[in-house]
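S.,

Sequence below, as promised.
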Amino acid sequence: MERHPVHGLVTVAQHIIEQQRNHPTATGQFSWLLSGITLATKIIESYVRRAGITNVLGETGESNVQGELVQKLDMIANETIVRCLGYRGNIGILVSEEEDEPRIVKNSSGSGNYIVLFDPLDGSSNIDVNVSIGTIFSILHKREDVWPSDGPEKHVLQPGIRQLAAGYVVYGSSTVLAYTTGDGVHMFTLNPDIGAFVLHQESVRMPDVGKTYSINEAYRASFPKGIQDYLEWAKTDNYSQRYIGSLVADFHRTLLRGGVFLYPPTKKSPEGKLRLLYEANPMAFLAEQAGGAATDGQHRIMEKNPQHMHERTPLIIGSKSEVERVHEFLEKG
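The prediction came back faster than expected:
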């Protein structure tokens, strides 16, 4: 793992430009797009930091397309990302977990070839109790085999293996950005003194083993038998349980420490609860680029072909050997 010395600080903008130099066909449009995402997350971070002293805590009284109560910060985060990206002419479609339909970016004049999918504020039910929350994003190219008359959704419904980039920002004791463009996972910390994300880990590798599992065991009786058997085994083998209830925070810990995060199907939610396009795909891309793995218990997450925008999926993600171990129990169960 490479580390840049303190006197040679590298910002995320500089790092993206350096990465582009490794790709002779790069035009600079991609760095312009990512700069919009980092700007949006810095604005969201400022709201999160001041949530307790400004009128942004609590619910709006409305429900989103998922049937979940919308938090005030959900709405602020969503509109912040839309504003920051809506003026990037190379973006053609914006897709939010909070909205029913994709947004066509009008000012792209048809030239916007990028699609940005995002969960503006993952873990928002934890806002009022000061638990780490985050923003997740995924970037695709528009499909060349789709006609304008087909509508934007056909552009959006692509498997995760077609992602150009993915990442997340976790708003915790520090604000951390992790992203990949298919050339490893790179991690940055927001330096409030200079207002920039500064590189602190390059080419992050997830430990191949980790004796920690992360799951909401309140639903244990409703999990598949293989998952129940795995949990019983983990307890006898001195595994530790760590569960925050915010995917960004749980995945961030797993990325750095190893282990496995599980969100299996239940009798009530046989298709799982996490969203394939906004949560599972970007996290799977990051996990694989760091040496880990991500499946739905049967198939590789990134190879799943989405059928609709808000499709849900089970998720087993983390250290490669730990994910494989869960699969062994599922096959026996």
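Confidence is low (pLDDT under 50) at residues 1-7.

Coffee later?
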